TrEMBL record:
Documented EC number(s): 5.99.1.4
Key word Iron-sulfur present: no
Reactions it catalyzes: 2-hydroxychromene-2-carboxylate = (3E)-4-(2-hydroxyphenyl)-2-oxobut-3-enoate
Lineage: Bacteria, Bacillati, Actinomycetota, Actinomycetes, Kitasatosporales
Keywords for the protein's UniProt record, in alphabetical order: Isomerase
Organism in which the protein naturally occurs: Streptomyces chumphonensis
Name assigned to this protein: 2-hydroxychromene-2-carboxylate isomerase
InterPro entries: DSBA-like_thioredoxin_dom (IPR001853), GST_Kappa/NadH (IPR051924), HCCAis_GSTk (IPR014440), Thioredoxin-like_sf (IPR036249)
Active site: S15 (nucleophile)
Membership in a protein family: Belongs to the GST superfamily. NadH family.
GO molecular function term, any single one: glutathione peroxidase activity
Length: 232
């Protein structure tokens, strides 16, 4: 199969919507998840933004209004409850999103990219941990049985920075403006609410029908934090 025909999803370790989409893919559409190419999306720091610009790309960032920020907090609480999930909303203090996302690329080199995402999402959204902290990245490495230094130092690795630029160029070329974002052939789907339609397109004729909702719970993530504008 041609690489541009492989269905793919763009995810961010920052976004609660990406976390919930990952959870739905894993629990409701595992056959679809197994067929996807995983592509990371993150807000670049000054160095990554310069490298991206020099490569002819641009990052589609739009500042978030206060009204949208408050809506997202409410919306995520609702979605978490619907899934019977428990969450602790994290607090990001001067985050550098290259730290977890370049560490993901390093883990992927070891064949552990999916497991890295799974643990990072758990630490961030279930435990409220700061995944931009080197200590948290080291903890992920230990849990996965990977070398701590390789993952912790990924943010300072020139080769991984170069590959990060390539990843951000793919964001630019695919016209991704928020996450989760799904692509199947020429069809694009933005947001967690489009996941059933994306799954159906991947499965083909007679494919996915939205499963029954899982039991609701009274869990509440609480907290107050924004994230990249345009997240679906």
């Amino acid at each position: 199969m041609r690489r541009d025909r492989v269905p793919r999803w763009y995810f961010s370790l920052r976004s609660p919507y990406s976390w919930l989409a990952y959870r739905d893919l894993r629990t409701r559409y595992p056959d679809v998840l197994d067929r996807l190419e995983w592509r990371p999306f993150w807000e670049p720091d000054a160095l990554s933004e310069r490298l991206l610009t020099e490569a002819g790309g641009a990052f589609p960032y739009v500042a978030m209004s206060r009204a949208k920020h408050l809506y997202i907090l409410q919306d995520v609480r609702r979605l978490v409850r619907e899934r019977g999930e428990e969450s602790t909303w994290p607090v990001d203090r001067d985050p550098c999103w290259e730290v977890p996302h370049l560490a993901y690329l390093a883990a992927r080199d070891e064949g552990r990219g999916a497991e890295f995402v799974d643990v990072a999402y758990r630490l961030r959204w279930n435990e409220g941990r700061d995944i931009c902290d080197s200590g948290t990245i080291a903890a992920i490495a230990r849990e996965l049985g990977l070398g701590e230094s390789r993952l912790v130092e990924a943010v300072d690795d020139p080769k991984l920075r170069e590959r990060g630029t390539t990843a951000l160029l793919e964001v630019h070329r695919d016209g991704v403006f928020g996450v989760p974002f799904f692509v199947n052939g020429y069809e694009k789907f933005w947001g967690i609410d489009r996941l059933p339609a994306f799954a159906a397109s991947v499965r083909g004729p007679g494919g996915a029908v939205e499963p029954a909702r899982e039991p609701a719970s009274t869990s509440d993530p609480g907290g107050d934090q924004g994230h990249a504008g345009g997240c679906g």
